[in-house]
Each structure stands twice: as structure tokens, then as C-alpha cells.
Write a structure and sequence with these properties.
Layout: E1 14-17, E2 24-25, H1 26-39, E3 48-53, H2 57-69, E4 72-77, H3 82-92, E5 96-99, E6 117-120, E7 134-139, E8 149-153, H4 154-167, E9 175-177, H5 185-197, E10 200-202, H6 211-219, E11 224-227, H7 229-237, E12 250-253, H8 260-273, E13 276-281, E14 291-293, E15 307-308, E16 312-316, E17 322-327, E18 333-335, E19 350-359, E20 365-370, E21 374-377, E22 380-383, H9 384-395, E23 399-403, E24 408-412, H10 418-429, E25 436-440, H11 454-459
Parallel strand pairs: 1-10, 3-4, 3-5, 4-7, 9-10, 11-12, 12-13, 24-25
Antiparallel strand pairs: 1-2, 5-6, 7-8, 8-18, 13-14, 14-15, 16-17, 17-19, 19-20, 21-22, 23-24
Length: 462
């Protein structure tokens, strides 16, 4: 099978649908890609482009143009705050920047197009080279503007797209709607896997809680829905199970642990409506996906992250219980500055996930928590992820835990349950009341990918 960025084998099929017109075929999309490649600064050397992303055709065109031209591209939130963007630009010195948001300007760059503009950096004449295998750089930290990025190769992208298309049983009749940011590995994997099979992308920035989103979903007959845990919390409030969505075939969840009661609730919806529900597990460091739970196994494996994706393998370190993954989708390594882009494959297909896990008798993996998400209170080792899991299961509401070796703080949005949570945790873990507290906040802070912003929670401790 050809690479997903080679569009020629799907020439007559519909590639993209937008809210304001009928979209374009793969052949028409390729013409747009060719036009963009012609705009890029001429150079015989591999270049680094910075793409400020949105769920639109302009972003898709620029992304595919970079892959086809053999350049490396950084994918960053197009609405990231200017000073954070400047930090990334300073650290990586991209050869050019493309953005649908024309309000951005950067010192040392000049504008060369009024629609999707490209600006070439001329003030760094002797930049370090870029490794031949490097294709995409994805941030590890959502909207915080950290300069730490994951280095992904062409092989990583293609391997993960192939695996996902295989276990989700994708074909050219798929019509996937964008529910996640383009620059988020989960959202990008939806795009890549649909392009691979010749499916159609329904591109929108509309939120799933908006009327606009569901009108588009129904009009364009979307066949799938992808979401993080927060997405499914919102879908439950929207009474997803009673929605009339005749075109929907399956829905997927990743990006963090979904409470078992919600897994079973959405599994029941899938059974009653004749659809498939996939619970999945992955990390940006593995391009996107590492495992999934076959829909028919969810009834007994609601708290599992499942089995390895096709062509992937898990094993567990006997001493530390850390989950280790092996596969062609494992990143080349990390980068924090332009100089790091000269490096090749440092991991050789093996990823230490940082997750503590065990495997049941059927070979299904269960995550107990993050290695770094442990604190000690009076000598007692406390797993913060486990506490969140216990509370979510008991009270069916989202919480977030943070702390240090002196104090545990549990954050919740529900003031009514705060005292009940306090009593429950004290009894469950036999904690002294002076060693922890339950605090109510209007909204739990989240990153743009829907995951909890623990860095911000840490700042809220004082």
C-alpha cells in the first residue's frame, strides 16, 4: 500500500468536506499541495517548517506538502499565545512559517503570501542540518508552549496509520469528522489513517457541544467520532445515546483513562445501536496508538487498555512493573532545540511508557498509574492516578489529584460531593485529615487535547 501522503491512488475520491462548500477530491487536493510546494523557499537542503494549525484545508495542504517534499514540519496550535510561539521559533529557528492566522509576525521573517503565508528566515545562514528520516515534530505539552517535541519519522507515521486502519477496519467509504486538534497526535492519526484508505475528512473547528457541529455531522453523514475522556463526559451530558445519527458506524476513545462506568455506558449504547466502540491507549511518543480493546471484549475488560495494535508488542519490566512497548511507530527521540534535529533513531523501536501496568490471564494490559505520579504520605506510597480512579468510579464525576510528599490535594468541580469525597478517601486510605484536602474549582484546567493540566494544578496548590 502506498504512503498516506501519496494522494494519486485515490484521485477521483472525495478527500475533504468543509462547512462552506462541497470540498475537493484527492486530485484537487494534490493540485493545492503542488501549489503550496511551489511557494516554499527553494533549497537543495532539507528544511524545517513551522505550521500553525487549524482543522482546515490550508493546514492539511501545508502538512501534506512538507511530507511530499521531504521536509520536516513542526505542528503547533495556531492559537498559541504569541510569546510562547516566539519561544519555539527562537529554539528551533524554522526555515519558514505557515499559518492561516495572519496576525502572527516574527522578527527575521518576511511575508510572501496573503492567504496562507510563508515567511523565510534569513538571519540564520548556518543552521544545523536535519536528519533524513525526520518528518514531523509534535509537542509533548499541549498549549504550554514547551520547547520539548517528539521527533517522528516517515516510517513512524505510515506504520501507525496502517495499524489503525487495520484494527478499525477502515475503507474508502469512511467519513471522519475532526473533533480533536490537528496538531494533537490522536487528531492527526485520524487524518492520516483516513487519507491512507481514501476516506473523506469532514474538517471543522466546531465544538461537539455546539449545534453547528451536529448539523454538519448529520448533513455530511459522518461515520465516526473520536474523543478523549472529557469528550465522553460532554457526550453523556448531551444524551448521546438518544441522538439520531444513522450514518455513525463507530466511535473511539483515547487520550487518557475513561472511568469504567462511562466505558460500560457507551459500550451499552454501541450494543443497542449496532455500532462499535473502541477504547484505546497511546502516547505521542508512539505516534498515536499502542493498544485497543476489541469492542466485543469491553463487557469484561472495561478497565483495560487492551492488546497491542497490529505489528506492536508489549512487555512489562519485572523489577519496576513499567510497561514497555515495541513497534515501528516508536519515535526517533525527543528534541528541545534545532541542534537536536540532526539526531537519528535513538530508541530503536522501544518505548519506556512511564506507566506502571500488569497483564491479566488473557493478555490484556491494565494501567495502574504513572511512575512519576506517586507521592509518599507518612511513609505510605500513594498513587495519584489510583485515587482519581477510585473517586471517579465511586461518585461518577471528574476529579484531579496533585501533591507532594507532605500533602495531597484533590480538586473537584462539584462542591456538593466535596465532603463525601473527603470522608471516602480518609476511610479508604486511612489518611490523617491533616495530610490532605478536597478543593472545589469552577472548572478543572485542561490542555487543548482534553487531558488534565497537572502543571497548572500544581501551581494551584498554594
Amino acid at each position: 500500500m502506498s504512503t498516506f501522503w501519496n494522494l494519486s491512488h485515490h484521485k477521483e475520491l472525495k478527500a475533504v468536506v468543509l462547512t462552506d462548500h462541497n470540498g475537493m477530491t484527492y486530485g484537487e487536493l494534490q493540485q493545492r499541495v503542488d501549489d503550496f510546494k511551489a511557494m516554499l523557499p527553494s533549497s537543495t537542503n532539507k528544511q524545517l517548517g513551522l505550521l500553525l494549525c487549524s482543522n482546515d484545508t490550508a493546514t492539511l495542504v501545508a502538512y501534506l506538502a512538507c511530507l511530499q517534499a521531504g521536509h520536516a514540519v513542526m505542528l503547533v496550535d495556531g492559537q498559541l499565545e504569541q510569546t510562547l510561539l516566539e519561544k519555539i521559533v527562537y529554539s528551533y529557528k524554522p526555515n519558514w512559517i505557515a499559518s492561516p492566522y495572519t496576525e502572527h509576525t516574527f522578527e527575521g521573517y518576511h511575508q510572501s503570501s496573503s492567504v496562507l503565508w510563508v515567511e523565510e528566515r534569513s538571519s540564520y545562514p548556518a543552521l544545523p542540518g536535519i536528519h533524513t528520516d525526520l518528518a514531523v515534530l509534535l509537542s509533548t505539552s499541549g498549549t504550554t508552549g514547551s520547547a520539548k517535541f517528539v521527533r517522528l519519522s516517515y516510517r513512524n507515521l505510515q506504520a501507525n496509520a496502517l495499524s489503525i486502519a487495520s484494527y478499525l477496519q477502515l475503507d474508502e467509504t469512511e467519513r471522519g469528522i475532526t473533533t480533536l486538534p490537528f496538531q494533537y497526535s490522536y487528531g492527526l492519526s485520524v487524518i492520516n489513517s483516513h487519507l491512507l484508505v481514501g476516506g473523506t475528512l469532514i474538517m471543522t473547528n466546531a465544538s461537539i457541544v455546539s449545534k453547528e457541529f451536529w448539523i454538519l455531522f448529520k448533513e455530511q453523514e459522518a461515520t465516526s467520532l473520536a474523543g478523549v475522556p472529557y469528550t465522553y463526559q460532554m457526550l453523556q451530558r448531551l444524551r448521546f445515546g438518544s441522538m439520531q445519527l444513522p450514518s455513525l458506524r463507530y466511535f473511539t476513545q483515547a487520550g487518557g483513562r475513561l472511568a469504567p462506568n462511562l466505558v460500560q455506558a457507551f459500550r451499552q449504547i454501541s450494543v443497542e445501536t449496532g455500532r462499535r466502540f473502541y477504547v484505546m491507549y497511546g502516547q505521542t511518543e508512539a505516534t498515536a496508538r499502542m493498544s485497543y480493546v476489541p469492542p466485543e471484549q469491553l463487557v469484561d475488560k472495561a478497565d483495560s487498555v487492551g492488546i497491542a495494535i497490529p505489528n506492536g508488542t508489549f512487555w512489562i519490566d519485572e523489577e519496576t512493573s513499567e510497561l514497555i512497548y515495541e513497534g515501528s511507530n516508536v519515535m526517533l527521540g525527543y528534541a528541545e532545540a534545532r541542534e537536536d534535529l540532526t539526531r537519528g533513531d535513538e530508541l530503536q523501536g522501544r518505548l519506556h511508557t512511564g506507566d506502571v501496568a500488569y497483564r491479566d490471564e488473557d493478555g490484556y494490559i491494565y494501567i495502574k498509574g504513572r511512575i512519576k505520579r506517586f507521592i509518599k504520605l507518612f511513609g505510605l506510597r500513594i498513587n495519584l492516578d489510583e485515587i482519581e480512579k477510585q473517586i471517579e468510579t465511586e461518585f461518577s464525576l471528574p476529579v484531579a489529584c496533585t501533591g507532594d510528599d507532605d500533602y495531597l490535594i484533590i480538586f473537584t468541580e462539584n462542591e456538593t460531593n466535596a465532603e463525601q469525597i473527603r470522608v471516602y478517601i480518609r476511610q479508604l486510605y486511612k489518611l490523617h485529615p491533616t495530610s490532605f484536602s478536597v478543593r472545589t474549582v469552577p472548572v478543572l484546567p485542561r490542555l487543548d487535547n482534553g487531558k488534565m493540566n497537572y502543571m497548572k494544578l500544581k501551581d494551584m496548590m498554594s
